[in-house]
Amino acid sequence: MIFETRRFSKLGDGLGEQASVSSDLCPLSDLCSGETGIVQGTRWQSEHAELLASYGFFPGSVVTRVSSAPQGDPLIFRLEGRLVAVRKGTAADIMVTREKK
What we know:
The chain is mainly beta. It contains 2 helices and 8 strands; from the N terminus they run E-E-E-E-H-E-E-E-H-E.
């Protein structure tokens, strides 16, 4: 499956180059507890790109899934030394590659 992605800029304006990325990517929401991923970008249709960039979700950022709320939403991630809660639907728009151990 090929996704069209929109890369974040460091200024958080949600603008950037489009790129085709291969199927080795997965949505952030697919990471299991304790699993780490490297942010690659966000899906083209994401309406949350600017907000995500303000949280620090830039290409190359390392993010680890910590846990989730009791009903499974939101998901809790460690990003740049802090905990960030992200709704499952929003996390599905963030594309990551799983970090190899």
